[in-house]
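INTERNAL AUDIT FORM
Audit reference: QA-55
Scope: verify that the stored structure record matches its stored sequence.
Auditor: D.O.
Record contents follow.
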Amino acid sequence: MAFDAFLLILVMLVVGMLAKHSGMFADNAAEVLNRFVLYICLPAAVLRFASRLSFDASLLGLVAVPWIVLLLSILLVHAAARVFRFSEAERAVLLLCVPLGNTSFLGYPLIQAMLGDDALPYAVVYDQFGSFLILSTWGLWVLARYGGEAKPSLQSIGLKMLKFPPFIALVIALTVMPAEPPASIDAILKRLADALLPVVAMAVGLQVKLALPRRELAPLATGLVYKLLLMPAIVWLLLPVLGLSGSMAQSAVLETAMPPMITAGALAISHRLAPNLAAAFIGYGIVLSLISLPLWHRLLT
């Protein structure tokens, strides 16, 4: 399953790149695909998975991990941006893509494949109470701050979050959505959620450029080192402090080590925030994670 997920992403990235050079799609095809994912596929996935969550105090350490990663990412990205003089758009891409990993549509199958079915609930908790909420709050702030004409206020961020389709789906999932919906509803949600991975990978492929301008190589290298190596290493060192052990600890490190979230990169592209850098960050991140994730798994087990 894990190999199939990686293979599907790589295939759709290549298809998207070929389609871009062939002229088969309109110039705004990537933007249309991104909107389809944001308004249809991602909410369907949230409705399907979040409604099945059960939460207790023993998971607090696990929930804290993605938020710790967020705080460290903010500090390290701002420090690197000052040293290397990144542009505002380049800084925004790193602020989005370093703390946010592909913890669901790659994380779920990879955690299941590497650690077994018993570890899958930990991946869901990390993703829904960490990555998803960070995307719905911090991600929206970054997009408004760097992608808008005016600096956002707390009121404007709150309104955007309340109107953000995946956030609306999360509220519904945690309140009125039954844990086991009717089979027909569940089947529809599953088909829509399954479309997320290939559609977003296709959209990124339509935007990706393997040859970046020289000035964007520094933010790309910095972000990939932070995302794939430094952040999981810090989490690994913090495991005793957070009281995490066993498959919960392994899940925390491996979820942190996942490649950048495709949705975060797609949102950066749709807001015209260094789109070439964002697409390259996703593409190179996925390819390099084929090496880094097995290494982390070997270290943990």
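Auditor finding: record pair retrieved intact. The chain has a mean pLDDT of 87.
Action required: none
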